Sequence to fold (674 residues):
Amino acid sequence: MNVLITGAAGFLGQRLARALVERGHLQSSAGIAEPIEELCLFDVNPPAALARDSVVDSSSDPHRRSAPIRIRAVTGDIRDSALMRSLIDERTTAVFHLSAIVSGTAEADFDLGWSINLDGSRALLEACRQARARARVVFTSSVAVYGGALPVLVTDQTPLNPQSSYGAQKAMAELLLTDYNRKGFVDGRILRLPTISVRPGRPNGAASSFASGMIREPLAGEAAQCPVAAQTRLWLLSPVRAIEALVHGHELSPAAIGIARAINLPGLSLTAAEMAQALTRVAGTEVAARIEWQPDERVERIVASWPAAWDMSRALGLGFRPDADFDSVIRAYQSER
Amino acid sequence: MNVLITGAAGFLGQRLARALVERGHLQSSAGIAEPIEELCLFDVNPPAALARDSVVDSSSDPHRRSAPIRIRAVTGDIRDSALMRSLIDERTTAVFHLSAIVSGTAEADFDLGWSINLDGSRALLEACRQARARARVVFTSSVAVYGGALPVLVTDQTPLNPQSSYGAQKAMAELLLTDYNRKGFVDGRILRLPTISVRPGRPNGAASSFASGMIREPLAGEAAQCPVAAQTRLWLLSPVRAIEALVHGHELSPAAIGIARAINLPGLSLTAAEMAQALTRVAGTEVAARIEWQPDERVERIVASWPAAWDMSRALGLGFRPDADFDSVIRAYQSER
Fold:
């Protein structure tokens, strides 16, 4: 089978690509493990090391090693319908749609957010429809589809009520994917991701960027701003569990998912203060003291509209796994560096 | 002020145009009654009698009569962004967005439904944004945004879960309008209409077309098919109340509506059998016997996914009015002919 990752130069995209190369296979639509022949890494930015056109041996386990995987790196605009059609054909039975304008940027640049997050998703889905392969499409949605007067625990029955352009765009892409799924054009799976922490690298335009920065920068000896109040509660998932979830989301049978294609992934519910306390326990008082509490009304308004926790029972029943605790998430981040 | 009606050649559009000419004024954004100077009637189909370029005297009541209203009729494609911009300027402070591909047609023609119902709505909203008049935009949404396992009584807290392309398109246009409203580009009002009955004229491509046909055709001495089971329950609103609701939806102050821009309009909950019984009471057994019960799985599937009733408390509190009973709705239809 051929696999496409959009947003492949992003943080999750790069990790997913490595995970798929390591794994070497994915479930086919017939429900059997099928070797990955080609992995297409698509992004608006030039690809990282793995992403250059190459052939790599899959799987470090020699018993599971199959034929080499062709890596095809393509840089372009996801709104380009002809380009998207050229990347997806009848052998493309797995698509991971990760590319998006992040929340803070989508709020600041209204036109860019709508055109990438809505039109881009539509160009991708339309290319899948034309290829007639009924690809399994794993789409990453977000806590940002919720908002307004939320219950303490968000459930599958909580109405979507986005309070940001990013959230509205994600909610609309969910509806679009669900209709393409209902029509049989794709086999869609929507994974609503908690805020990912701890991301390596530099801050980005996401309103939630601080949720990684306030851990990452202090560990690197730098100061970091926390722009939300200490009591603001976040719903968090580690990068390791996020990648596991993307692969698991693909592997699930359509029957296991049923009609409701969106799944709220498990997470950890912590206040910003509790995140700082975890950092103190893992790295000491001096490190945690590098967090500067500087409320930013613009960020606080977006982040406070997101749910602080949601019901995990459906996701757990489907086999998705949460992190044990945030201390271990910070330790895992340290051990990776 | 200038007023734009999209879908102005449609059944509701024509009636709304007549109602606005009769009325002669609408609330400005400042909350005061302002005379309508120009009424732009836009549709893909050529306009009806009123709609030809003309100047008409508003209001039959001489005490309320103001300057004549210019009627501007424009035939075109709502997806044409440049055309939409040419229709909307800084004086266009009232927009009634009624144009849509109806449910049955949107289900049968996937591309047409998405492009008119989503892209068309977007072109319209974008033209409003560019005109910088923060127009009050009244958008007609539908029972079709709901679906799946519904509670007996749908409330404002029931999640949107469309089970048709039309429903998905209406739900997405709601999200889009809500974000344009949140950003201050428009003052949006979403009215979720029950199924309108009794519509005059001929059957159309709406899955709910039979809800008028099974009353209208027997009254005209013709046979009519009812494609749903006798026990299938519908949520109904008369044309008279629908037009009242559109005008009232415009007149409400932004503060009265609050953050949740979508309002479920009041309706009557009747089974198809109860509709036939009302016809018997009003017009006799012989007329009602012209209803042929011929279940059509395609129509039944769509209609049965819609709510049979929803909580009216918010709409009633905002001053929207339901019909008294379906017998009087049929009698009102008869008296209009």
Q: What stands out?
A: The interface with chain B takes residues 110, 148, 157-163, 165, 168, 171-172, 175-176, 178-179, 182-183, 259-260 of chain A (CB under 8 Å). Residues 2-196+237-266 of chain A form a domain with the Rossmann fold fold (CATH 3.40.50.720). Chain A has a mean pLDDT of 93. The longest strand of chain A covers residues 69-75.
